[in-house]
Amino acid sequence: MTEYLPFIVAGLVTGAVYGLAGVGLVLTYKTSGVFNFAHGALATVAAYAFFVLNVEHEVSWPIAAAGAILVAGPVMGLILELITRRIATAGLAYQVSATVGLLLVVEAGTDLLFDPTVIRVVPAFLTEESFTLLDTSIAWADVIVFAFAIVVTAALALFFRVSRTGLQMRAVVDNPELLSLFGGSPAFTRRLAWVLGSVLVAASGVLLAPLLPLDPLQLTLLVVAAFGAAAIGSFSSLPLTLFGGLLIGVLASLSTKWFLTGVLSGVPVSLPFIVLFAVLLVFPKRRLAGKAFSVARSRPTWSAPASAQLVGGALVIAFLATVPSFAGVRLTAWTVAVASVLVFLSLSLLVRTSGQVSLAHVSFTAMGAAAFSHLAVDQEMPWLVALFLAGLIAVPIGAVLAIPAIRLTGLYLALATFGFGILLQSMFYSQDYMFGATGLGLPEPRPGWSWVDVQSDEGYYYLVLGFVAIATGLVIWLNKSRLGRLMRGLADSPMAVATSGAEVNVTRVMVFCLSAFLAAVGGALAAVAQTTVNGDSYQPLTSLVFFVLVMVVLGGEPWNAVIASALFFLVPAYMETGDITTWTQVGFGVAGVVIALLPAAAREVPRPIRELVDRVSRRGRRTKAAPVAGQRPLVEAGTLEVRDLNVRFGGVHAVDGVSLSAPTGSITGLIGPNGAGKTTTFNACSGINRPSSGTVCLDGHNVSRRGPAYRARRGIGRTFQKMELFESLTVRENVALGAEAARSGFNPLSHVFSNPVRSRRAAADTQHAIELCALSELAERPVSALSTGQRRLVELARCLAGDFRILLLDEPSSGLDHAETEFFGTILKNVVAERGLGILLVEHDMSLVLDVCAYIYVLDFGKPIYDGSPEQVTASPIVRAAYLGDAEVETAIELEVTA
Ligand SMILES: Nc1ncnc2c1ncn2[C@@H]1O[C@H](COP(=O)(O)OP(=O)(O)OP(=O)(O)O)[C@@H](O)[C@H]1O
């Protein structure tokens, strides 16, 4: 035991500091809903502030610490509160862009202010006295740090539990409006949380300062250990977060004893990320998923017409073909930039198209470069085969990384990838199968083809240009294919994609794998331009810069990738000042913050450019002929049967013993006052929530344990009370996804390819649904530009275009005027008469219900209280009473029973 004690003590001290930083992180995340990736950067600022005051200006340590913690901390907290308040509804990717941008600014800014070549040491400032326990000398300073973390966390936890302000802090995330109604001030509460959170991380920065020479990158990443601690606390519990910090500290310290050399020597540094990843992979979903805040999505909707894109593409390629004539010594930089278009393209596919955040793309390029060298040199494989396999090697790793996004939500994918980049560097870069421990660099050979000169810089440049041009064309084609629609649909509404019949997890993994493949190939091509590479060329921080660039550069694919790659690789090549890379990092970081703060409309390509491009390419003059609407056959007869359904949410018994039957060929109503359990019943029928008991059967086939996509493919389609449209797609594309999502199924190939007969049928079904809902005039407009009534029709058309037999329509007339509701009723009656569809309709508009329904079920407080024909329902005193109040229902039931 005594041999372990020094390690345990050291681990408890660093762990207490991690825990403190983690508690600060949880505090701000809990109250603002924005995860602060710049949390570690705040510790850096505080540590340097302490250094300047205490060491450079010889201010006594208590005053210097007070300045760094109690002055710099709150100031940083208030700035962050200001930023995060504005980006709270900006969408996850923009939230990450803002905080990652801040991190980049602080890291590079510190290097600009403090010459990185000078070693700065902060002397230990707490007491140097120590005592002996079990033959181990323990410093009183360590005891103070440990006790400080415990006392502060306990005090905060108590404050949250018992004080009014603490309760308000917890309430502010759930419902800020409600809090202000009850006299609390959400703004003050949020500000207080940010100040407290920043003070805590500033304290951890000051406490870490004497432990190692000051280095902005190391300090920023060290505090990233707080992410692992916060994960153990489920991003929610303060005491568990402190415990997580202590656990990580002790395990990391012990692993320095256990794993001194060999494969596992990187474990101590990587431990927080191993813990973070393990938590994301194994913690029960409900403990984490519920904590992730859902945020509105906002994406640009304009894209240049195809003709303009083609001309633009040809011009860019023509220009790039002239590069060797003027590039001179910078030709290698140009080759790297052209190859890296693939990397940015792959990141954009993930981030901009499918709405998933990756902060580890440099890791894929590193894998590609290392794998290519080993395959081409050590294994002597043919050049093209080695390149292809180098790309493939990244695919399974991409698939594993996508798991947190599948199990949980996008934020956790961002966290997992952020940790993965650092983990790969600290654990695997120095292994022989990557860059090796010597740092000598791996040879990256060019093809030895005799029929063409690709050995020279110029020849290789043209090879890369050709490669990238073809790959870019393929990516553009993919974007326009079914997979492209599915990816964009996924970014806008995963629920609508799933209930249309597509397996969203297959799509998510596919996109990640494809992206990893392209990035690895791009990495290998770029590495070959440089002839040798080592691990230093692949810093994890660069992944953050790549991500921010993809967010800030306007324009769609592939233009944003071309511009981003040029900015990153060519600007430093042409600006020859020593710290240009640091300056550009500051610039990109600031841009990452600014783009998130801008209103959504300002993130579009500026209007004059859009108008000019549209005008020059004469958009709108030649409209493509709409496909011919197909005749749709009668659907096979069947019935949706719900038996004794019960759904509970904690103590709420939302659905209590509901049974109903909705056959094809007729419209069945499901009505009841607000909160009666109608939507919950729908969700149980379509597989969005799990009932605690009861069954859902389609044609006698029990589908209760199946997911939404399976049920959709069996024939259950639905619309949503709170509309779930694909905002960045046009009306036609929205409706088309209804027709084709189910056809993508589990098979990755059918996500991309479809047989021509089926494609034509899907296009005809789409057109049929569009005409049926009178949307032909609007078919090419983005849905975000439509009125509520038109949007309801698009959702219905999407449902009608699919191969569904039973449609669940949840309050489809809400937000419609009288004429629109009547039109809606007519469409419903028509599709039932013509195609024999079955409809289960939840609706508050009783005139519509009584007009179209053949049979009606009535719920109240989750219980079935009546069912019958429209006439019986209208006449029933039970139903009338249900809409008036509780006591009357019971009296009415008694009266009806006696009668
Ligand atoms: N995810 C959830 N967690 C906790 N309670 C929930 C959840 N979803 C619904 N409830 C509760 O279940 C009950 C039934 O809600 P539901 O939305 O199904 O009613 P509804 O009949 O559709 O109401 P409305 O007509 O207002 O849409 C309500 O008390 C609601 O607060």
Automatic annotation (TrEMBL):
Name recorded for this polypeptide: Branched-chain amino acid ABC transporter permease/ATP-binding protein
Membrane topology: Multi-pass membrane protein
Domain ABC transporter: 640-886
InterPro entries cross-referenced by the UniProt entry: AAA+_ATPase, ABC_AA/LPS_Transport, ABC_transp_permease, ABC_transporter-like_ATP-bd, LivM-like, P-loop_NTPase
Main localization (coarse): membrane
The keyword tRNA processing belongs to this UniProt entry's keyword annotation: no
Membrane-spanning intervals of the chain: 6-27, 34-53, 59-80, 87-106, 138-160, 192-211, 266-283, 333-351, 358-377, 383-403, 410-429, 459-478, 509-529, 541-571, 583-602
UniProt keyword terms in alphabetical order: ATP-binding, Cell membrane, Membrane, Nucleotide-binding, Transmembrane, Transmembrane helix, Transport
